[in-house]
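Quick entry, no commentary yet.
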Amino acid sequence: MKKIVTVFIMLSLLISLVCLPAHAENIYPTYFDSLASTTGSYTSYKGTQEIQLLCSYTHPSSGDAGIYFYQPSAGLSASFIHSNNRRGTIMLAEKDDEWFNYDDIVTYYIGYFSTGSDGIYSMYTYGRQEAYSTPTTIEDDNMLELYLKVNIDIVQGDTSNNVPVGLFRYRVWAN
């Protein structure tokens, strides 16, 4: 009888632990380099660097998601005016598969350009902006399909508009 009671208690404890909501941060393990793009227009990473994270998410009521940025591996060439006024807009979007339900913008960042100590002219600081979609439009399927939409500003005097791969390096997180 003691064994049955012990087994019952252990099973109850195990079930209760499994059913507790998780609040740990879910970080996609892969680092990505930004894609090549053209200044002045948005480049969508949908389908190329689309990230799937398994988590319960009905932002903003029960979770959050964002981007960690890392040292860039490339910068803009001398064909670009090296201005501290140049900015990049990086949107984190969640893909919706339903008809007439546009993809949701979870949040976005403004990247600020400067020349680093290594001489590379790139984005080194980022400011997060709040741009949450209506919580009812984010799918409740416990799977986030996240991707970026990126636009780099044109500055008068630029003689090129070709942004190289690796202007920024990133990972996506959700909790």
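second:
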Amino acid sequence: MQEAFLRVWERWDRVRVMVEPIGYLYRTAMNTFRSRLRRRARAARSLARLRPGPASQEFGGADQRDAVARALKSLSERQRAAIVLTELLDFDSAEAAGMLGVRPSTVRNLAAQARKALERILEVRDE
């Protein structure tokens, strides 16, 4: 909810002259909530598609964790930061952009590139 208030506050010059600023706040809160749900669902689908290899089954997943760590290290620093902030730490692209000093669209592009690279490196199966 704080995120919705912050977004409305950032646009206050425009919002304060609206007929129903509360409606705008409500819509902003709902859109923020839906975006967060979509991100979580996308992250869950990505994790579910990881194909465990024979070694990871035999050793209880330790090899798979090592493979993920190596795959993350193979990404560029910016890609790694974008994917960790958005997928693992659950920041939205605007929040991550503020931390990285880039535009939200840049964060989304970097995260998409990182996901594609991780899927390729970790041999994600198609569904």
